[in-house]
Amino acid sequence: MTSPAESIPNVEGFHVHLGTPDELPVSRETHAEVRSSSRQPQSLCSRGYLDHVARAKFGDIIGDSPALKIALNLVSLVAPTNSSVMILGETGTGKELIARAIHNLSGRRERAFVKLNCAAIPLGLLESELFGHEKGAFTGAVAQKTGRFELAHKGTLFLDEVGDIPLELQAKLLRVLQEQEFERLGSNRTNKVDVRLIAATHRDLAAMVKQNSFREDLYYRLKVFPITVPALRRRAEDIPKLVWHFTKLYGQRMNKSIDAIPTETMDALVKYRWPGNIRELQNFIERAVILSPHTVLRAPTSELEQFGVHEGSSLPMTLLNEVERDHIVRALEASNWVVGGRNGAAERLGMKRTSLVYRMRKLRIYRPISIPKTSAFEGCAS
Ligand SMILES: Nc1ncnc2c1ncn2[C@@H]1O[C@H](COP(=O)(O)OP(=O)(O)OP(=O)(O)O)[C@@H](O)[C@H]1O
């Protein structure tokens, strides 16, 4: 677990571990990071030394389950190369942390790590965000703008939700990946860039290729080295460490020293399926710390029971159930957890709404706590 003496929270709530530059490359990012100036020398020996090295390599990626180790091993292998990496995994599994680790372990670590969430940018602005524009290139382009590719020159560009890039932009993205050149909107001048691309998505890009909504050539260009970040339910053995990590993190922030977690609480947290993965767990623990008046964590685990998500009761999860479950969860995520209607998950899956609701009950699929309720789903959550 992270010791407060060795790390400090940065502006995004991640911890930045302190070490010598050789031990711990830290990215120079486009946004500010708070750093401590007082570096304490550490005594390194045997197990402690190995822990230190592992921490230095993977920053704040908590967990040592076999499933996570497989992913981290791939990170170590690909980081020193210049190859594109595709990070796959459900929402909240830590794809961005993995992307940062690849950058921090690469020869580009002294240069920028630039991030763009393609799903968060209105479609009309995405091209200008990626490639920049000249003044007057379109209505509202009152000044010249540098795009993310230029900002990431010599560094790493992390394109989150790459499956949300519209077809018409995919050709331009493929060109910059293959030729390392592009033009800003409204300019004829060709810019050369040297950027390593890391892409992430929770979508099924192979299925999108089949449906002609994602270019096949771009898919293969991006998929040079895929890394799948396992869902939290596939590495439940990491949950206690994560729970302690977030309890300490929020405890420090809220000036509370929580040093005990009841066994029943930890059992409930380990059994819950965490459809929103580590982000959902993190938000839940933040709430639990707020609710804890003393030194014992008081977590509202009845909420988890209310969502009916404890494992191990009626349904033994077979591999087939798991596959079906994952498929349904992906469709629900893609439709923002709306079940019925024209853009709902049932339509995407080619099922009747009532059949989907039935399958969701059977497979115990529930909306993550952090996502606001939609009337379409209320019937299932009770
Ligand atoms: N192994 C881990 N150890 C500690 N914190 C983690 C770990 N994995 C993820 N987190 C935390 O969980 C939150 C979600 O992680 P992150 O944003 O990397 O997920 P993501 O897969 O990129 O999500 P999305 O698909 O929604 O973009 C972050 O606050 C991150 O710090």
Would you give an account of this structure?
Residues 1-40 are annotated as: Disordered. Keywords: ATP-binding, DNA-binding, Lyase, Nucleotide-binding, Transcription, Transcription regulation. The chain is an alpha/beta fold and 382 residues long. The protein has four domains: 1-60, no CATH class; 61-228, P-loop containing nucleotide triphosphate hydrolases (Rossmann fold, 3-Layer(aba) Sandwich); 243-300, Helicase, Ruva Protein, domain 3; 319-381. The protein is 41% helix and 10% strand. The protein contains 16 helices and ten strands. It has helices at 46-58, 66-78, 95-104, 123-131, 148-151, 167-179, 205-210, 216-222, 239-253, 263-271, 277-291, 301-306, 319-334, 345-349, 353-362, 375-381; strands spanning 7-9, 15-17, 28-29, 85-88, 112-117, 156-160, 181-183, 190-192, 196-201, 226-228. The strands form three sheets. The chain has a six-stranded parallel sheet. A hairpin with a 6-residue loop joins strand 7 and strand 8 (190-192). Helix 9 crosses helix 11 (277-291). It is globular and about 65 Å long. The chain starts with 6 loop residues before the first strand and ends with a helix. Residues 1-53, 308-316 and 369-382 have low confidence and may be disordered. Bound molecules: adenosine-5'-triphosphate.
